[in-house]
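Exercise 7. Given the encoded structure of a 367-residue chain, write a plausible sequence.
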C-alpha cells in the first residue's frame, strides 16, 4: 500500500483523532460556550506543543496583550508580572500530562508572586488530562476551571484541540475560519483536488523524501516577515519530534531573513551541499511601503540565487498576515497540510510519528 493510500485509509477509519474535524469543532464549541474567561491580558503557561500553536497565531496577528511563559527566564517572567494589572489578567496553565516541570514551577511562582491578591477561581484556567497529576489536583483543590485535554492527542498534533483553540478564541475574532481551512485541507487531500498552496502535502512529502535519500538532511526554512517566526518554531517541533527516529529525519533550521543573509548565506551557497530550502513570506498585499517592497525584493533575489545555483527548493508560500478575513483559513489549511506531510514522510521513512522515546532520556536526570 502506498504512503498516500495508507494515510487516507487511516483518516477514513478515524485512526487520527487530531484530524477528526467535526468532533474537534463540536468539542471546541461545547467548551467555549460554557467558558467565562474574559480579560484584558492573557498569560499562557505551557511548553512545546502545549503553547506553540496558539503562540504562532498570536505572533502572526501581532497581539500585544498575550504573553507566553514557555521558558524559565526569571527576569522576563518578573518583568511581565510587574507590568500587568493582575486583576485584569487571565492565566492559562497547559500541560497534557499535568506534570510538566516547567509549568508546575511557573504555577507555584505566580501563585506566590501574587498571593492572596489574586482570585484563582476567577483568574486561573487549566487545560490538562483528568488524572491524579499535580496540575489537575491544583485546579480541583483551588476551585478554578479545568478543561480536559484529550489524552489521545500529543502536543505537536494538538493545534485544533483545546490547548490551542481555547487561547486562540480569546484573541482572534475570526478563529473559526481556521476550522474551515482544516476541513478544506482534509477534503483536498482525500479527493486529490487542487490545493490552496503551491504544492500538495503529498508532493512535498515525496520531494523531501527523495532529497533525504540523496543526502540532504538539513531543511532551511527561510522566513520573510517577522510575523512568521513562531510558525517556524511550530514546524521545527512537528518535523523534528515526529521524524527524528532510527537515523531518519532532517534538521529544521529557522532562518530569519534578511538578517541571515548577512551571517550564514555564504554557508548556504558555498558550504556543504546537504540542505534543501523552503520559503515562507508575509504578503502585505498592496502595500507600497518601501520597507515591505524591499523585503519582497530580497526574497525574489534569494529565490533566483538558489535557482541559479541549482539548490533544491521544496516550497514557496505567502501568508496574508495583515488580512484577518483570510489569514484564519490560510493558517488552518497550512497546519493540517503540514501534519499530513509529516504523516506521509513518517510512513515513507518507516518511523512512528507519535512517539518521542529519546526525549525521555533527558527527563530521568531532572531533580
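Solution.
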Amino acid at each position: 500500500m502506498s504512503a498516500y493510500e495508507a494515510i487516507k485509509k487511516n483518516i477514513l477509519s478515524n485512526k487520527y483523532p487530531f484530524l477528526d474535524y467535526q468532533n474537534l469543532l463540536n468539542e471546541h464549541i461545547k467548551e467555549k460556550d460554557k467558558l467565562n474567561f474574559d480579560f484584558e491580558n492573557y498569560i499562557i503557561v505551557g511548553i512545546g506543543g502545549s503553547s506553540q500553536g496558539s503562540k504562532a497565531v498570536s505572533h502572526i496577528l501581532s497581539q500585544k496583550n498575550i504573553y507566553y511563559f514557555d521558558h524559565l527566564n526569571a527576569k522576563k517572567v518578573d518583568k511581565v508580572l510587574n507590568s500587568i494589572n493582575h486583576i485584569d489578567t487571565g492565566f492559562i496553565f497547559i500541560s497534557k500530562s499535568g506534570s510538566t516541570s516547567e509549568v508546575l514551577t511557573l504555577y507555584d511562582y505566580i501563585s506566590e508572586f501574587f498571593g492572596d491578591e489574586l482570585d484563582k477561581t476567577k483568574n486561573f484556567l487549566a487545560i490538562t488530562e483528568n488524572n491524579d497529576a499535580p496540575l489537575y489536583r491544583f485546579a480541583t483543590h483551588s476551585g478554578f476551571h479545568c478543561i480536559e485535554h484529550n489524552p489521545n492527542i500529543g502536543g505537536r498534533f494538538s493545534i485544533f484541540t483545546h490547548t490551542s483553540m481555547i487561547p486562540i478564541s480569546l484573541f482572534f475574532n475570526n478563529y473559526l475560519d481556521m476550522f474551515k481551512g482544516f476541513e478544506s485541507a482534509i477534503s483536498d487531500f482525500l479527493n486529490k483536488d487542487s490545493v490552496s498552496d503551491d504544492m500538495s502535502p503529498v508532493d512535498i512529502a515525496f520531494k523531501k523524501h527523495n532529497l533525504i535519500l540523496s543526502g540532504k538532511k538539513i531543511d532551511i526554512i527561510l522566513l520573510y516577515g517577522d510575523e512568521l517566526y513562531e510558525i517556524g518554531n511550530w514546524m521545527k517541533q512537528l518535523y523534528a519530534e515526529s521524524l527524528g527516529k532510527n537515523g531518519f529525519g532532517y534538521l529544521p533550521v529557522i532562518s530569519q531573513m534578511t538578517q541571515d543573509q548577512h551571517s550564514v548565506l555564504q554557508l548556504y551557497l558555498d558550504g556543504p551541499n546537504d540542505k534543501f530550502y523552503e520559503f515562507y513570506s508575509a504578503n502585505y498585499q498592496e502595500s507600497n511601503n518601501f520597507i515591505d517592497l524591499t523585503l519582497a525584493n530580497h526574497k525574489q533575489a534569494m529565490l533566483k540565487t538558489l535557482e541559479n545555483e541549482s539548490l533544491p527548493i521544496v516550497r514557496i508560500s505567502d501568508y496574508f498576515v495583515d488580512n484577518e478575513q483570510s489569514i484564519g483559513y490560510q493558517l488552518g489549511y497550512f497546519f493540517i497540510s503540514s501534519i499530513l506531510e509529516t504523516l506521509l514522510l513518517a510512513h515513507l521513512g518507516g518511523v512512528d510519528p507519535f512517539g518521542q522515546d529519546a526525549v525521555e532520556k533527558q527527563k530521568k536526570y531532572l531533580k
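Remark. The chain has a mean pLDDT of 92. Students should compare their own answers with the one above.
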